[in-house]
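User: Predict the complex.
Assistant: Input components as received:
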Amino acid sequence: ELKVEQNPLFLSMQEGKNYTIYCNYSTTSDRLYWYRQDPGKSLESLFVLLSNGAVKQEGRLMASLDTKARLSTLHITAAVHDLSATYFCAVDMTLDKIIFGKGTRLHILP
Amino acid sequence: DSGVTQTPKHLITATGQRVTLRCSPRSGDLSVYWYQQSLDQGLQFLIQYYNGEERAKGNILERFSAQQFPDLHSELNLSSLELGDSALYFCASHSPGQRNYGYTFGSGTRLTVV
């Protein structure tokens, strides 16, 4: 059974700092998604990573995928308060479903 | 607006009761996925339908059932409700040809069982 592990699960950081969230998964996949969720809200798609070595950037967020290591990272550069949210990675095994990690709750202190 | 519509947004009901959650997928999407989000279990995949047919099952309890209708909307039925069923229930949709664009989620139904 596919397992998706994120770490850390909680992260409190100062504005202006850099940090990385890690997402490991247990079986082969070539599609990985990152979502953002604000409290009580829906999931907003951030990145879709489709192949080994894929790197995508949007503003202060950059995501990468290493399918050989079964690892994806979400890097935050010079964090700002507006980035406070919970971030999920999700691995797409087949057309049948995607499996989510437990999420990383990010709190950025002003 | 993501294009995936879920109703109702909030539902409060008593233990032992039965409720129906509704999801209309984004226009053109044939697949509907249901997820349950609770504080302790995270986002759990429940079930998937594709063009009216059940395609995959996850951690869905026997008290729960779902279906997808010819117009592609889906309903999730939860019966004999327990306090532990209180959660956010999301549906998501996509089409096979749009897989590279990810899955689109609705705004969810918050179910509170009292």
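The mean pLDDT of chain B is 92.
Let me know if you want any component modeled separately.
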